Amino acid sequence: MKRLRLLGLALPSAALVFLLLSPVASGASTGSANTKYEWDIINFDFATSTITPGGHASAFATASGGSTPTGEITLTGHGTFRSNSDSPQDVTGGGTWETFDGSGTPTGSGNYRVTGLVDFDVAPGSLPPSVTDLSGNKADVHSGLAVFKIAYDDGSDGVLVVSCDLPVGSPNTLFEGVTASKGFVDYWERDPAVAGVNANRTNFHALH
After folding, report:
1. In a domain, 6, yes or no
2. How far apart are CA 74 and CA 96, in angstroms?
3. Chunked in runs of 10, what are the mean pLDDT values of the chain (208 residues)?
4. Could you tell me the pTM of the whole model?
5. Boundaries of domain holding 112
6. Cα Rg of the chain (Å, integer)
7. Residues 84-95, buried b or exposed e (16+ Cβ, 10 A)?
8. Residue 99 falls inside a structural domain
9. How many domains does the chain have?
10. Is residue 4 domain-resident?
């Protein structure tokens, strides 16, 4: 059984719905660049300070006005996209999903795929010299925030937000991890990355 933790105060991410419906939300807000990026939910080996692909990340839903989790979603995933909002986004990728109710009992699982890019913004940040990055070229790693449209294999759809807050030089307005929606459920509260726990970590790499 997945144990759900109590959450602190936070604001819902309902603004993401506006992003999807807005006529300006047709792609990334990174100008005329046409850079191809890879996104990953990663593993981090604390013994060797090594990053590899294939990690998992979670986010929580709560009742209106409450702080106790009413549900949880756990995701794996990776993929690619282009940052140019004036061109096809060339999105690929997806991963697995599993949901839980407020008591931690599994309620569903399967696969999802990315169907579109809503927005992507690169942010400052880098990895320290002590970290080995086997998920991509370390020189091309970036912090940032990506919002994707996704389709679940049970017929529902939603939004996946991937946020990467690299440890060197990233602004404190970023978070590390993911949030997601599935149907009418908004898993808006991220499960924060915690030292010593291999979960809730992400990164972006520019591809050449």
Report:
1. no
2. 8
3. 34 39 38 80 98 98 86 98 75 97 97 95 97 98 97 98 98 97 97 97 94
4. 0.84
5. 15-207
6. 16
7. bbeeebebebbb
8. yes
9. 1
10. no
